[in-house]
Design a protein that fits this description.
By secondary structure, the chain is an alpha+beta fold. Helices cover about 35% and strands about 20% of the residues. Among the domains are: about 1-95, no CATH class; about 190-285, no CATH class; about 405-480, no CATH class; about 485-660, no CATH class; about 665-735, no CATH class. Pfam families: THAP (PF05485), TNP-like_GBD (PF21788), TNP-like_RNaseH_N (PF21787).
């Protein structure tokens, strides 16, 4: 039998069209699924498709070589071929099969071809009596919903209701179908398929899980049942899958799928809505075998009696898919025992070699020699292990002796605690073979964090040159990310601050509270650690009535710091983000709260320091601080200036208010630069004195200048230069 086109209604390659010169191409193995979807029919490795279903541009029939628009070589191939990546198309111009024009002789001749294709008719599930079986393709596809794999046949069982047909019955059914179609054509009535597509009738589904879909190319109707099931790609996660599908084309050709297996394929004479609804009810009543054990339960096996289905389960090759008794077929139930025996055989069975007597003796001799060598190797490995353990014990004892002696020497030196921590870290690092995965003490880690914060360049230089055993940059960043850097006064911080102050001498706990504000560039970021926005107004847990809405971007930062009076000890204690300068009322509450928290931690606050900003002056007014001498002429009383306020924690002490000295120096210089003239004690000081001095002094050589540090930035300062305290102090020191 010659090759035929597998597309429905295409007669290329058939016996009646053997004189037609049409090239037929084989289906590529790697594109069977794609070709099946595009053509709307089931294809396998042996299927063929004729050239009618391809674009002419995808078919190579000759070789042409042209240059400058002229053909210099042309050769026609003896056999046509497809270009790489060519895809078939369903020829919509091809007229559908008109059964009304088929006579009896043509049907009989056509049935001889059908008889050859229907030699392996198998079982079917029970269908309504108005269905005549044409072909039963029992297969299983792994990927495509409508693809068919004809390699596995479903066995016949006694439980299934099935019937066989002969070629005469096919001929008779085909003739009856043709007569029915002729009558419909003569009467001009629409078929059931056309009525459903035109939404003229509504098909009642068997249940809520059922629905139907329409497809125009090819023209088919799909009635499907949807359920949740686990798949190999999703594991235990449930995904929707189509368990039952009834496919009906425009020629009333019916296919019934259970999962990916086609159990029924036939031509029907559906005449009304009731016939189709009865068919769907019968399919819905079918009890589907769920398969055997899960693939995850039995992984490392390769049985020949079962395969993996689309639900990630093992299914027996003889599984009938549709069962009439029980919920699982007897074949899939037996897989549990079969797989257990299979695994047991794999565990206990030994590889056996079929050898001649002479070769068998040689192999046995080699086995004995191998066992002897294995015993020798085992004894040597045991001895090596014992020696290694003994050496490790001795090494530990030596390390303990060295550690004890080093600790005694360090105690005798009476070194400061930071130096002791450094020596211990150097010794601990030298003992380790690897430069990674080192563990550092808490004291040394804190020192490294402070060093990295103070100067990153210095930290990198000390680490790269191996001057100090410093941790890597990633370790430092990980520790910094783990710390809580929120705004406000943190209770956990003050708990640690209390421990720190407890270790300091008594006189080091007396200090001054300093606070200042700085203007920042507004920025908004997302903190992935707590999934909140950074860059908004944030006063922590403090309740400040004058603070605007918290969902506003901040552009100022307020920082509080405690500084010891007698010791070089400075510690920031709080930070706040605000929009614009903090109001005097809110600032007064924060200052009092900061004093209370420091006093609770063990510190002694004797004063506050701030610059002369307008909000800070309002703070002084709120706290009752004034530098004015108030004279009441009526009462004859004089109120001296008040430069302190009562300590909120200890009534026996007061807190003094100081203005920032560098800020005062800058203010004096800026006022003199802007006003150009001051009068002090009856004498005038003008800014032109400084200008004339700089003008005459810069004429002298560099080594003879009276004011070598005086520059253009001192005399004509820019906005940035006005902020530098050194420029202001150097200008004032010229005439002193």
């Amino acid at each position: 039998m010659g090759r035929r086109c597998a597309v429905s209604h295409c007669k290329s390659g058939h016996r009646r069209h053997k004189h037609e010169k049409i090239t037929i191409f084989s289906v590529p193995k790697n594109n069977i699924q794609v070709w099946s979807e595009r053509l709307g029919c089931a294809l396998n490795e042996k299927s063929c498709v004729c050239e009618k279903h391809f674009n002419q541009n995808d078919i190579k029939s000759e070789k042409i070589i042209a240059e400058d628009g002229k053909i210099i070589f042309q050769q026609r191939f003896s056999k046509k071929s497809l270009i790489k990546g060519a895809m078939p198309i369903l020829n919509s111009d091809e007229p559908p099969m008109k059964l009304a024009k088929i006579d009896t002789s043509a049907v009989i001749e056509e049935s001889q071809d059908l008889t050859e294709e229907l030699q392996n008719i198998s079982k079917f599930s029970t269908l309504p009596t108005n269905f005549t079986v044409l072909q039963n393709t029992k297969s299983q596809s792994d990927t495509n919903e409508f693809a068919i794999d004809t390699e596995k046949d479903t066995p016949v069982t006694s439980d299934s209701k099935l019937h066989l047909i002969t070629s005469n019955e096919v001929i008779k059914s085909t003739i009856n179908l043709c007569n029915t179609i002729n009558k419909n054509d003569l009467n001009g009535s629409k078929s059931l398929f056309q009525q459903i597509c035109a939404n003229e009738i509504h098909i009642n589904q068997p249940g809520a899980k059922w629905n139907f879909h329409k497809s125009l190319e090819p023209p088919i109707l799909v009635f499907s049942e949807l359920e949740l099931a686990s798949t190999p790609t999703r594991g235990e996660n449930k995904v929707p899958v189509y368990t039952k599908k009834v496919i009906l084309d425009d020629q009333l050709y019916v296919k019934v799928f259970i999962g990916q297996k086609n159990i029924v394929e036939c031509i029907s004479d559906l005449k009304c809505q009731e016939d189709l609804e009865n068919l769907l009810i019968e399919v819905d009543k079918m009890i589907v075998c769920p398969g055997g054990p899960k693939v995850a339960t039995f992984k490392k096996i390769h049985p020949q009696c079962a395969y993996k289905d689309e639900n990630n389960k093992w299914r027996h090759n003889y599984c009938p898919t549709v069962v009439t008794k029980g919920s699982v077929c007897q074949y899939c139930v037996s897989l549990h025992k079969i797989f257990a025996q299979h695994i047991d055989r794999q565990r206990t069975s030994k590889k056996r070699l079929v050898l001649s007597p002479t070769t068998k003796n040689k192999v046995q001799l080699l086995y004995r020699r191998a066992r002897v060598q294995a015993r020798k190797l085992t004894r040597k490995e045991t001895k090596i292990k014992q020696i290694t353990e003994y050496i490790d014990e001795l090494q530990k004892k030596m390390d303990e002796i060295e550690t004890e002696s080093l600790e005694k020497k360090i105690e005798k030196l009476n070194l400061p605690e930071p130096q002791v921590v450094l020596i211990r870290e150097c010794i601990s690092t030298a003992r380790k073979k690897s430069s990674t995965n080192n563990r550092y003490s808490n004291e040394w880690m804190l020192t490294c964090l402070l060093l990295h914060i103070r100067s990153t360049a210095t930290y990198n230089m000390l680490r790269e040159n191996k001057i100090l055993p410093l941790p890597s940059k990633s370790t430092i960043c990980r520790y910094l990310r783990s710390s809580n850097t929120g705004c406000g006064f943190d209770e956990k911080f003050f708990t640690l601050f209390k421990i720190k102050l407890g270790k300091l001498p008594e006189d080091a706990r007396h200090g001054i509270l300093t606070f200042d504000e700085i203007q920042l560039r507004a920025s908004l970021e997302v903190n992935v650690k707590n999934m909140k926005f950074d860059g908004l107004i944030d006063f922590g847990t403090e309740n400040c009535p004058d603070v605007p809405n918290a969902m506003v971007q901040a552009d100022h930062a307020l920082v509080f710091m405690f500084s010891s009076v007698k010791h070089a000890f400075h510690q920031p204690i709080g930070m706040f983000a605000c929009k614009g300068a903090t109001s005097g009322d809110a600032l007064a509450g924060l200052v009092l709260k900061a004093i209370v928290e420091v006093e609770k931690a063990g510190g002694k606050v004797h004063g506050i320091i701030c610059d002369g900003a307008s909000t800070n002056r309002k703070l002084w007014t709120k706290l009752g601080i004034s530098g004015k001498l108030k004279i009441n002429e009526k009462e004859g009383t004089v109120t001296p200036p008040k430069y302190f306020f009562q300590n909120p924690v200890d009534d026996s002490r007061v807190v003094y208010a100081f203005s920032d000295a560098p800020h005062l120096i800058k203010c004096i210089r800026n006022n003199l630069f802007n006003k150009k003239k001051f009068k002090i004690n009856g004498q005038e000081v003008e800014w032109r004195f400084y200008q004339n001095l700089f003008k005459e002094d810069k004429k002298l050589p560099a080594n003879l200048r009276l004011c070598p540090k005086l520059t253009e930035n001192h005399i004509n300062p820019t906005n940035t230069a006005k902020m530098r305290v050194s420029f202001a102090t150097q200008v004032h020191l010229i005439f002193h």
